Amino acid sequence: MKAINWMLEHPWRVVGIVVMIAGLYATWVRFTQGLGAATNLSDDFPWGMWIGVDVMSGVMLAAGGFTISALVYIFQVKRWQPVARPAVLTAFLGYVLVGGGIFFDIGRSFRIWHPLVMWNHHSVMWEVAWCVTLYTTVLGMELLTFLFEKLEKEKLAHIFHHLTFPLTLAAVLLSMLHQSSLGSLFLLVPGRLDPLWYSRLLPFLFFISAIAVGLTMTIVESTLSARAFGRCIEGPLLQSVGKAAAWVMGFYLALRMGDVIYRGAYTELWPLDRAAWFFLAEIVVGVIIPLIIFAYPSLRQNTRYLYHAAQLTVLGFVIHRLNVGITGFEVIKGKIYTPSWMEVAITLMFVTIGVTGFNLACRYLPIFETEAEDSERLESWSIWVRQLAATKGSASQVSEGKS
Amino acid sequence: MKALLYDINLCIGCEACVDACKEHNGLPEEPRDKLCATNFTHLVDVGDDEFYRRMCMHCVDPACASACPVGALQKTPEGPVTYDYDKCIGCRYCMVACPFSVPRYEWDTATPRVRKCEMCKDLVAEGKPTACAAACPTGATAFGERDELIAEAWKRISADPDNYAHHVFGEEEVGGTSVLMIGPKEVLDVAFDADLPDEALPERTWAVMSRIPAAVGVVGVGLIGINWIIRRRMALAAEGETDSTNDGHGEVQ
């Protein structure tokens, strides 16, 4: 009876436990019997859900880290500082999970370090491996700053504060490289990837979509963590993030549509087959609808519209990456790929670990705090900081009920 | 560079090449009708007693070798595209990259390898023909220098233009291959994707990769410059504000 009551009180914890059990079982199968036993991968679809979701989308979802910190620390948009730390934390967790995804996906997991010593500088994959490794290190160092602050290691924290600019610069350059390179990977497959997705512009499209998702994920994340930690939402700040996203997405849409028309690929849209529907889902649901909401002040001022528009954008660009990585190959293969339950379980296990990690870090590290002088200097969000200071003491109690 | 010339019009579909391949590579008898981790070549029956052979095409500038992050796949000067299992991490980008969908994977083991024809690299290194070429009773699969085989192919085409398409497949496609194929147009059309570009595919990724150092330099310097200008402007603005109001609110680090 007690156990049932606990389960009713904490439904998300129950879901988390179920996912972890399923994920651990799938992990055991994958590492003892191989990829064939755990996944629906085949010689026709050598890449599936783990590459499409955990790696290609995971890297994109973590793009808020470099996007926001570039704006705050390089372009000095100080107003956005409150969202910089959560974005860096999400990026770090995201990249650790991407590393986990790669570890599960590659056939010889324990050789994951090989690209660091065995070089093929012609390989886009080699460049991605190096950039992801270096960038995760950079994010780890940014996270150390928070840790030293927390532990009151004044001297170390001071040193790391001075490293903020070079670390941010490294973060932007490394991200520019590997975010675009995930698109460059597919430059090698003309005539095999559906013309709706194959384009010489893939590296640019991937980089711009990473910025768009970096911005919109910040809206999603801030809204969710505001709910979870009982903070108030930084309304005007998130609206300006939405407005910035509108500009980026407008540019993306113009480039993407121009490319599809210039190459004549739009003729593939009729008849409306599976590929055409996936294309429309990506463009209409993922770009056009949220773009309209972000572009009109009257719409984006509504917190719920803003939140849902951000969610749609994230969903849309995840569909784009899945289309490039998987759906776009279905026509030439004459087959369809759907993930096995174990692939889904392991992906959900990673999500659970990420959410739990974010929660723990927010509780124990100074993520939603900012330096005292900032609150004096910047009036636009000083109200929020004061509210935060008031709720800071009770934050741990509030978050106790969530997981 | 060594190569193989496969002539569809000489092939009788006896599968001696498949048997020789299996023996040389120590592969099981079955399957023999598709490319897989335990079968590196097979014949496709297109009806009317006509067949064509599928195998690794051993591209001159292979997409798989440029894709491999650890250099496990290499184009050797002798011709074969070889695979080094000790380096391979199993990312399977080679399988995605191959324009002919050739590399196969061992899905049912915890220590999997990429598997494909390696053009009997040990035999070729000794100057001997591949097992399949040595076994072929009609000369449909012939081994030799790539230039000489291309010349031979064109000789056969011009001698019998009714039965041969005016095309040596692999002479130009994807920058050229070390497996060349000739035969009737109908069969070649079925066997190969007509959309394959003549440009070597690795050039498309290299066009991006080779520009990375310059891009990093330009963007890096640009960002530092922009940051300097913005800070400078903010400092000047703050100075002006402090002078006029002296409230200290516009102070910038």
Strand content of chain B: 5-15%
Computed Rg of chain B: 27 Å
Uncertain parts of chain A:
371-388, 392-403
Q: What order do the helices and strands of chain A follow? A: HHHHHHHHHHHHHHHHHHH
What kind of assembly state do the chains in view correspond to? heterodimer
Based on secondary structure, the structural category of chain B is: alpha+beta
Q: State the helicity of chain B in percent bands.
A: 25-40%
Structure, described:
The radius of gyration of chain A is 22 Å and the shape is globular. Chain A is an all-alpha fold. In chain A, helix 5 (64-74) runs antiparallel to helix 6 (81-105). Helix content of chain A is 75%, strand content 0%. By secondary structure, chain B is α+β, with helices and mostly antiparallel strands. Chain B folds into two domains: 2-200, Alpha-Beta Plaits, CATH 3.30.70.20; 211-244. Helices cover 36% and strands 13% of the residues of chain B. Chain B contains nine helices and nine strands. A three-stranded mixed beta sheet of chain B has the order 8-1-9. Chain B is elongated. At the A-B interface, helix 2, helix 3, helix 8 and helix 10 of A face helix 2, helix 3, strand 6, helix 8 and helix 9 of B.
Brief summary:
The complex is a heterodimer of chains A (403) and B (253). Chain A has 19 helices and no strands.
Task: Give the tags.
heterodimer; A: 403 residues; mainly alpha; 3 domains; disordered C terminus; B: 253 residues; alpha+beta; Alpha-Beta Plaits; 3-stranded mixed beta sheet; two-stranded antiparallel ribbon; 9 helices; 13% strand
